[in-house]
Amino acid sequence: MSTLEPLSLDIVVTWRGRHELKQALPSLCQLAARHDGGVTVVNYGGDADQLRDLMAGHAANVKVVRVDESGWFNKARAQNIGAAHTRRPLLFFCDCDIIIPDGQLDALVRQLQAEPDAFGTVAGVTETVRNARKAGQVAMFGYHLKLRLANGRALEIIDNEEDAADGTRQAPGLLMVRRVGFECIGGYNGCLLGWGWEDQDMIARLTLSAGLMRRQSGTVLHVSHDDDARIRHYPPVQDRWESRDRMFRQALANYDRGDWLGTYEEDALRATTRSPVSAS
């Protein structure tokens, strides 16, 4: 296939009990239509009636994958299950509280179309409510993480929380990747249970294991909410930083022993053979 041949796009959104989806869904459907694609919402243990109400007016353009899961929300497994229910060559994993202004991701799609050895993330997010994290004197904080393997491959992750002055931050979790690249590293790692590192883990494995190059383009809006909404359905922690730190340490131990595979194969098998998962 020519690298210049248009790539159709499947958008995978994971959900449990989040009302912000109602605001996000119109732009997701619009993005899918722009790129001959589709939207798949994975209802991972959420209320089906609530989801139906939130999708009013857009249900005909959305595939819903229902996972009867009474335990904690597992975003990584939910995203793998969603991917298993799609077929297009390009995947975009998007949160249920993201509004995508028209045309903002066109350049990223073109970059991946032209570069088979690349994956992409959205360059930035702006909160719909400034200072949504209710910062006091610390207006912005971030981190710069470096990893280098024995084989010479290296990764730099630069991330920051919302800048209280302008409402902006990075968007590592809004990932666009060719299906072949996604599958070659086993998708997301569902063994990382909690909030906060499954996205950076995916970037690390695509870079350090698959050898792909990261591209960043486009800015989107995040429907602002508090931390309770962010971590409510995950295992209890003192705060989200505790969760992210634990997941980071687990991921780093995986890399150190050369364990680069996610749980896509296992999750895809569940998605296609077990009764608790269904699509509508």
TrEMBL record:
Keywords: Transferase
Span of domain Glycosyltransferase 2-like prokaryotic type: 40-216
InterPro entries: GlycosylTrfase-like_prok, Nucleotide-diphossugar_trans
Alphabetized GO MF terms: transferase activity
One Pfam family recorded for the sequence: Glyco_tranf_2_2
SUPFAM superfamilies for the chain: Nucleotide-diphospho-sugar transferases
Name this polypeptide is given: Glycosyl transferase family 2
Organism, as annotated: Burkholderia cepacia
